[in-house]
Amino acid sequence: MLYAGFGLAGLVVVAIAGKKYLSTMGQPSLNQVDTLQRRHVPGEPPRFAQIIRPKDFAVLDTVKPGSEFDGKSLFIPPGTNQESLRAKPFHIYDDSFHDIIGPDPTLTLIADSGRDPLFHEATVWNKARDEVWFVQNAGDKAAGTGLRKSAVVQKVLLSQAAAVQKGERNSTEVTVIDSNVTVVNPNGATIYRDRIIFAGEGQGANVPPALYMLDPNEPYDTTIILNNFFGRQFNSLNDISVNPRNKELYFTDVTYGWLQAFRPAPVLPNQVYRFNLDTGAVQVVADGMNMPNGLTFSPDGQHAYVSDTGILSGFWGVNYTHPATIYRWDVQDDGSWDNRKVFAYTHVGSADGIHTDSQGNLYAGVGDGVHVFNPAGILVGKIYLGETSANFNFAGQGRMVICAETHLYYVTLGASGWDPEA
Domain SMP-30/Gluconolactonase/LRE-like region: where (predicted)? Predict the structure, then answer.
């Protein structure tokens, strides 16, 4: 989960003559849809992209004192403002980002839920039906969850998302899933053996955190596949991923359920675990982090990545000296992890959900959208929203869906994800 909130002030969605526009404070339309195919001019950024040169802000005329930094501050490069950054949301920090976004990337708002943070986490693509699944924010007060009810599991059709992007409809239909058994407070998810594995945070003292395996076809039969570590409840399971080499499940466990007052005090350290579904074996593979959160692997399975959101501490507030860091490990042949190193430190909020593309670039949901790092950990670009994205995911070739709490976005770009079970 990510707790630093970033508003989307000035964002207005209107329908004009059957077309969809995403306008920002009178700036040029972000997603004006027409029937013309625009071509990228060599040497120039695409129509919805802009070049941000790090050298231009290496030395600033004025650097604000730390007392004016509140952890929610958006970074506005010199010569830009919030409106101009949103008007062209693909920010090129390095030339290699051109290949990632492709010649004509687009960003389209496809759903708006008002105040309820429906579009939060557990973003996965169900290839068989070409739909994207995601869940509500269990810990947000506006969701009305907590001890009263569980977060909601939902999905959208990519065909409808593409229709919104083309101006053929105004928004996508969001379908609520009534699983059998109920997935209690899901937060992370991955596709595994043609099923969706949800990491559930638990609820109160008597509903322990658990891994749920859900059949994405009606009636959405669901099985609990893990709910304890040798008889002890986990804290609140957060994110989950499949290693493409050994096909085993890895997941993070952290105390955010307690910090958001819907789970009791923790009885285990914050750790990363490995789970073999066939044998039932569960093993700790990494510890020593403050708040292990998002989890992913390189497409070859040689490296593991975990985001540490220690800066965000629930009812304890924000501690700017704690990690907002992505770590990388080497994955050994036996599936264990070794050689932890700092991969990247995020400068707006903290990285929550993380994913890699087919070329090994890493994408992180942060306080102003999605940041993209090359395999060396260098920031090469952003998909800028001006608000927090806790999670997102690729949806096959050249498509992505981004969750931003009350907003859901559809992206077309050059990069693609990868299938851990291929």
Answer: 121-398
Domain ranges of the chain: 11-58+69-416
The answer to whether the CB of 366 falls within 8 A of the CB of 85 is: no
Distances (CA, A) of 163 to 19, 112, 167, 171: 11, 16, 6, 8
Q: Rg of the chain over CA atoms, in angstroms?
A: 20
pLDDT tens readout for residues 153-190? 999 999 999 999 999 999 999 999 999 999 999 999 99
Section 331-342 average pLDDT = 98
Q: How confident is the model at residue 12 (pLDDT cuts 50, 70, 90)?
A: very low
Q: What is the CATH architecture assignment of 11-58+69-416? A: 6 Propeller (2.120)
Report residue 337 CA to chain centroid gap. 23
Alpha-carbon distance of 252 to 378, in angstroms, equals 25
Cα 297 from Cα 7, distance rounded (Å)? 31
Instruction: Give tens-digit pLDDT for 281-313.
Output: 999 999 999 999 999 999 999 999 999 999 987
The pair of structure tokens assigned to 144 is 């009305």
pTM for the whole structure:
0.90
DSSP E strands, 193-290: 195-200, 210-214, 222-226, 237-242, 249-253, 271-275, 282-286
